Amino acid sequence: MRSDIVFDALQTKNRFVLCHEAFKAVRMLHKSNTRIEDTTNDALMRLAVIEQDKTEEAATPSLEP
What we know:
- The structure is a single chain.
- The chain has one domain (about 1-55).
- By secondary structure, the protein is mostly helical.
- About 70% of the residues lie in helices and about 0% in strands.
């Protein structure tokens, strides 16, 4: 469901930033023969993956001195 995707994407952002980034991503990713809903879901999933990667990097301590 889209609400789960939005929740994952909102882990470190506020709603305004998420909406702005999602809007830009949808405009870049949308193809004329596809539904806008599918493109929106794809963009939100990509933003959620990026946020998960950022939180994992922050949680993992660096091994370099």
